[in-house]
Design brief:
globular, 2 helices, mainly alpha
């Protein structure tokens, strides 16, 4: 499910494909260690599953609408 505040969800399809290929390459090279660390140490959006740090926010910290 896409999230309108997420930079990853609102990227063009080609950009998302390139990012996904690079991430899979990194996970394969590190035998999944980077994936486990990312899932364990970073907060993720409950709607789209991407990292919350990539979501647009206002100066007061709330999400942009």
């Amino acid at each position: 499910m896409a999230c309108r505040d997420c930079r990853t969800c609102t990227d063009a399809a080609l950009v998302r494909l390139v990012k996904w290929c690079f991430a899979v390459f990194c996970y394969v090279i590190t035998i999944g260690v980077l994936y486990v660390l990312k899932r364990a140490l970073r907060r993720h959006c409950p709607q789209c599953g991407h990292i919350l740090g990539n979501h647009r926010r206002r100066s007061d910290g709330s999400f942009k609408d």
